[in-house]
Amino acid sequence: MKIIIIALAAITCIANTAYSQAADSTTVKKEGIQTIQVKTSAVCDMCKETLEKAMAFEKGVKDSNLDVDSKVLTVKYDPKKTSPEKIKKAITLTGYDADEMPADSAAYEKLDPCCRKDAKH
Ligand SMILES: [Cu+2]
Question: If the chain, 121 residues long, is cut into consecutive pieces of 10 residues, what is the mean pLDDT of each piece?
Fold first, then answer.
């Protein structure tokens, strides 16, 4: 019986070590790129193009995708070069709301009328 317990303990120990090593390497790999989801006031495919283009020029942003139906913009970014706050600010400067941050009014006025959040669709 003792031998079985020792063997089990050894297996558990090896498994734990392997698991924590795997977890470590995952953390290291993920460290570079983070993902955030921002609720915007985008309404159509043109908004999608406008926002994704703006994100493409934003420093530290690797990729972005707007889901027009849910209005959620998913942004992949390098946390060493930018932050969720900067990304949201960039969204508001494009003329759209970003979560709790309201759209920049001057940028909003420049949007195509059909892209304004109060436009009739
Ligand atoms: Cu639009």
Answer: 57 52 48 94 97 98 98 98 98 98 97 87 56
121 found inside a domain: no
Query: Which run of H or E residues covers position 51?
Result: helix 45-56
| pTM score, whole prediction | 0.74
Ligand 1 centroid, distance to 75 Cα (angstroms): 18
Number of domains in the chain: 2
Query: Are the C-beta atoms of 102 and 89 separated by less than 8 Å?
Result: no
CATH number at residue 91: 3.30.70.100
Q: Which residues surround ligand 1, an ion (CB under 5 A)?
A: 43-44, 46-47, 115
Distance 48 CA to ligand 1 centre (A): 7
